[in-house]
Amino acid sequence: MEITMMLQTAAVLFALAALGGMLMAGIRFSGRPRPPSWLAMGHGFIAAAGLTLLIYTELTVGMPVLAELALGLFIVAAIGGAVMNLKFHNRQLPLPIPLMIAHASLAAVAFILLLFGIY
């Protein structure tokens, strides 16, 4: 598979994950303590698929520097997402809004870097 196609596929996966993330943020900002589990898990699985594809691309064919920076930020964002899931969502606790904003901000910056790395 060509590097550009792999990076574009990862970008599409992250865009889908971002849509789910925005929906979950809207749910949280509306006053509900957390989104439905199916939505949170779908968001995480789609984002993990994009992250896995980026890691595979880096390890097999290499990537532009901006895409590598995006990969690093996506990894940090994934850690934040895992913390929200394991420490809060699974324990039926309200998701902390500052952590949610930090997670989303990191992922958004990483997504923009990925797009610049592709084009």
| pLDDT averaged residue by residue | 95
**Unreliable stretches, pLDDT < 50, 5 or more residues?**
none
- H/E element order: HHHH
Name the structural class: mainly alpha
Number of strands: 0
Distance between the termini: 17 Å
Number of helices: 4
Oligomeric state as shown: single chain
Radius of gyration based on Cα positions:
14 Å
Shape: elongated
What does this structure look like?
The chain is mostly helical. Helix content is 82%, strand content 0%. The protein contains 4 helices and no strands. The longest helix has 27 residues. It is elongated. The model has no long low-confidence stretch (mean pLDDT 95).
Question: What's the topology here?
Answer:
Elements: H1 3-29, H2 37-60, H3 65-89, H4 97-118
Summarize this structure briefly:
This protein is mostly helical.
What are the salient characteristics of this protein?
single chain; 119 residues; 0% strand
